[in-house]
């Protein structure tokens, strides 16, 4: 990676960290009905999944087939099974959060996470963030345009995810959680500069990342109590899709 690319990705990872540290100051997002900006970000995330993540999983599928010497159908099943596993793991984590908060309320301890569930939540999202930081340096789809689109999609995704995490355990998140996951994304970027993991391992991790992004979008946008807006959601989806298609076909 050139010095210029290092500086650009370094600036991007600092923005990611800043989002985690300062999302709580965006008080206009904390409203019912749901903020239109969050619905817009959800639309961008959905577009990112279908136009970036799923095609990139296909690229990793070819890497699996080549490096492991397995038939294309086996590689395809493996990669998409990992994406499904990523969705299942994050769904299980969200269920654990809800059950933990219910137990705390039943014990009269307030609406808070039990310590072990809090640590599990932070460890899981920390690993997710490390991968995001790593992929700033090592991505399947190269080029400045693709990197910019990756940055925009993940930045908006972080805003949405952070908003959800603060709803789950705002005190603990403000005290320690935001620092842990902000440090994790920087650590992942540093790891990407220091080393390059095998294509198969990156494919496995990326597939898990894909599943977690899908789950986060569904969790934040679909529940009825969110009172989400369809038009901002659709606008975010269409604008991001247009940018992706323009970057691929016009540049």
TrEMBL record:
This protein's UniProt keywords: Membrane, Transmembrane, Transmembrane helix
Transmembrane segments: 6-23, 35-54, 78-97, 118-137, 143-164, 176-194, 230-246
Protein name as catalogued: ZIP family metal transporter
Species the sequence originates in: Aurantiacibacter spongiae
């Amino acid at each position: 990676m050139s010095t210029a690319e290092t500086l650009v990705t370094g600036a991007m990872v600092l923005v990611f960290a800043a989002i985690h540290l300062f999302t709580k100051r965006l008080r206009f997002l904390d409203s019912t009905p749901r903020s239109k900006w969050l619905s817009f970000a959800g639309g961008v995330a959905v577009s990112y999944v279908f136009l970036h993540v799923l095609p990139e999983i296909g690229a990793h599928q070819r890497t699996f087939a080549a490096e492991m010497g397995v038939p294309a159908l086996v590689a395809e099943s493996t990669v998409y099974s990992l994406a499904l596993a990523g969705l299942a793991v994050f769904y299980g984590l969200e269920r654990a959060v809800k059950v933990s908060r219910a137990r705390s309320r039943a014990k009269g301890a307030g609406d808070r996470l039990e310590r072990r569930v809090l640590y599990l939540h932070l460890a899981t999202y920390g690993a997710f963030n490390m991968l995001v930081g790593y992929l700033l340096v090592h991505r399947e789809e190269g080029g400045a345009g693709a990197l910019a689109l990756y940055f925009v999609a993940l930045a908006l995704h972080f805003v949405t995810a952070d908003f959800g995490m603060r709803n789950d355990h705002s005190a603990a998140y403000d005290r320690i959680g935001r620092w842990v996951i902000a440090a994790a994304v920087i650590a992942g970027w540093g790891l990407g500069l220091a080393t390059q993991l095998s294509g198969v391992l990156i494919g496995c991790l990326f597939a898990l990342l894909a599943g977690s992004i899908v789950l986060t979008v569904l969790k934040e946008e679909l529940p009825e109590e969110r009172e989400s807006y369809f038009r901002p959601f659709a606008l975010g989806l269409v604008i991001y899709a247009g940018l992706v298609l323009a970057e691929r076909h016009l540049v």
